[in-house]
Write a structure and sequence with these properties.
The chain has helices at about 20-35, 55-60, 65-75, 80-95, 170-175, 195-210, 225-230, 275-280, 325-335, and strands at about 5-15, 40-45, 95-105, 110-115, 125-130, 150-155, 155-160, 180-185, 215-220, 245-250, 265-270. The protein is of the alpha/beta class.
């Protein structure tokens, strides 16, 4: 009999640094090192953990959130960029697969983005949440179908969705049909209250059962001091407590280790990959239990850029332009390479 393949997974529940991206990245890198020291081969962080989840948008009306939204822009992650290079270096140093949720800045728009780094440091997946939820629509743009993709990594076939994307059964099915072995779920944590934690648990356990895969879920944490800083109004602070359900679920829908629902910590669990076959032998939703001649999914997985050019833009010698035209050309180039945003 073939030797059972096992993967040691770590789900991280820690608080961000609400002052700077650099501060949060220090915590990310420290957690990667700590998890790797415990033998982890896969390390998962919460939704948009870097620099921080936009909690302010949940407890304050849009007219009062301008300054915090701008601050989020100023601290957001550019991918690729210095923050992603630091994570890639850590993944390579410790030989671990890392999944990090970030606020990604692409010129004038922020996105809720999930980054999957392989154990050699390669960025295997950069996907954007396809539909921001409720208050989040004032913060982030929408992703496209190109991110609904399962990627091969050192720990197996990995897919990812963020938060309420798990309430979109077709998005989940798109990953299931690509035979994901380990599903990464990321939620903000410290939000809505205990009912949110209950909903998260139901959602991730159901996906594990339906997909026949492991689910590694990470939620964030806020300290009381951070809650008070985000929300000076005491009656509203209850909206920023609870809602934590960091957990690691087997293909049989069971917690492999007790979940982490409060405080900071790192869950460690060994994934027995033979349980995937054991589950799918009974019920394979995209195999012998499917009826594709009756029900199937159409997925447009093309990128959706705002500009599709039939041919490259022409370049001409600088001396052939007037000063006004040359200035306009420099401005366009600045827009294209991002220097104008800086």
């Amino acid at each position: 009999m073939a030797e059972t393949r096992r993967v040691r997974a770590a789900a991280v529940q820690i608080a961000p640094d609400l002052d700077s991206l650099a501060g949060t990245m220090e915590r990310v890198l420290a957690a990667i090192a700590e998890a790797a020291g415990k033998g982890a081969e896969l390390v998962v962080f919460p939704e948009t953990f870097a620099p921080w989840y936009p909690y302010f948008s949940f407890v304050h009306p849009p007219v009062l959130t301008g300054a915090e939204h701008i601050r989020l822009y100023e601290n957001a992650v550019v991918a690729p960029g210095p923050a992603t290079e630091a994570v890639a270096a850590a993944a390579r140093k410790f030989g671990v697969v890392v999944v990090l949720g970030v606020n990604e800045r692409d010129h004038g728009t922020l996105y809720n983005t999930q980054l999957v780094f392989d154990a050699d440091g390669a960025l295997k997946l950069k996907r954007r949440k396809i539909t921001p939820t409720y208050h989040e629509r004032m913060i982030w743009g929408q992703g496209d179908g190109s991110g609904l993709k399962v990627v091969e990594t050192r720990v197996g076939r990995v897919g990812a969705l963020a938060c309420w994307e798990h309430y979109n059964p077709l998005a989940r099915y798109a990953l299931m049909a690509q035979h994901e072995e380990i599903h990464i779920a990321q939620f903000p944590g410290s939000l809505v209250g205990p009912i949110f934690a209950d909903q998260i648990e139901v959602t991730i356990r159901h996906h594990a059962l339906e997909s026949g895969c492991f689910v590694v879920n990470s939620t964030g944490w806020l300290t009381e001091e951070q809650i008070a800083r985000i929300c000076p109004e005491e009656p509203l602070r209850k909206a920023l407590r609870g809602g934590c359900m960091t957990a690691i679920i087997s293909p049989e829908g069971k917690h492999i280790v007790p979940p982490l629902t409060s405080g900071e910590g790192i869950l460690i669990a060994d994934l027995d990959m033979s349980l995937i076959t054991k589950r799918k032998r009974m019920m394979d939703s995209v195999g012998h239990y499917a009826r594709p001649e009756l029900l199937s999914l159409n997925l447009d997985n093309r990128e959706a850029p705002p500009l599709r050019a039939a041919s490259p833009f022409a370049s001409f010698p600088a001396e052939s332009f007037s000063d006004e035209t040359l200035a306009a050309s420099h401005r366009i180039r600045a827009l294209e390479d991002g220097t104008l945003d800086q």
